[in-house]
Amino acid sequence: MSQGSEAGRDRIFAAFAEFGLRRRGLLALIVLSLLGASLWMGRDMKIQTSRYGLVSEENAYQKRMIDFFERFGYPDAPVFVIRGGDEAQRRAIVDGISEQLEADPMFEGRVFGRLGAESIAEVLLLQEPGALAELREQMGEGVDLSSSIEKGVPGLLLAVEAQLLGGLDAGTAESGEPEKVDDGLRRLG
Q1: Largest CA distance in the chain
Q2: CB count, 10 Å around CB of 78?
Q3: pTM to 2 decimals?
Q4: Nearby residues of 102 by Cβ (< 8 Å), 6 or more positions away
Q5: What is the DSSP letter of 49?
Q6: Cα separation of 133 and 187, whole Å?
Q7: How far is it, in rounded angstroms, from Cα 144 to Cα 142?
Q8: Is 125 in contact with 105 (CB distance < 8 Å)?
């Protein structure tokens, strides 16, 4: 910095200091006036500490997220991991925790237990008894349906892909009925 700019800065600070020392009442009045104006202008200001405060309800994806939260609760809930003992002991502990939490009004309508698809896979396959036979018929003879099912959704999708590509390669792809195709895709989903 040059000598001139340092001297100018020093003079400005000296003037502020001198004003504060010589006119204390006027300085207090200015500070109180600025404080009052700030309070009056900020009276309608809302402070929100939620991380969802900046979410726009007009955005379709963010509205969908807010609807999910209203229906199922926020995903930042505590998780209990129960280990040890046998299955009956763990089940008893989970039931006890669930009863205590469900009794608390703060947790009303919340989900306290979930079953994964692996736990109920056999039941899902038998939900529509004819669906498996129909799937076998639609997949054709060249597809090993049992191994595709054992591999889960990725295995089924690979089998469908192989069937579609095989039909395209052979030039025998049938147009099919749109309703039947839609129904098959719905069931696959």
Answers
A1: 101
A2: 5
A3: 0.29
A4: 112
A5: -
A6: 13
A7: 7
A8: no
Helix (H) or strand (E) holding 154: helix 152-170
In the numeric block, the tokens 């929100």 are attached to: 48
Instruction: With both helix axes pointing from N to C terminus, report the angle between 152-170 and 178-188 in degrees, rounded to the nearest 10.
Output: 150
Q: How far apart are CA 167 and CA 165, in angstroms?
A: 5
- pLDDT tens track for 111-141: 666 666 666 666 666 667 677 777 777 776 7
* Residue 143 CB neighbours (<10 A): 19
Contact 27, 16 (CB under 8 A): no
Q: What DSSP assignment string belongs to 63-124? A: HHHHHHHHHH--S--------SS-HHHHHHHHHHHHHHHHHSGGGTT-------TTTTHHHH
Identify the residue whose tokens are 């639609």. Answer: 138
Q: pLDDT of 9-48, one tens digit each?
A: 899 999 988 988 899 999 999 999 999 999 999 888 877 6
Residue 66, judged by CB atoms within 10 A of its CB (0-12, 13-18, 19+), counts as middle
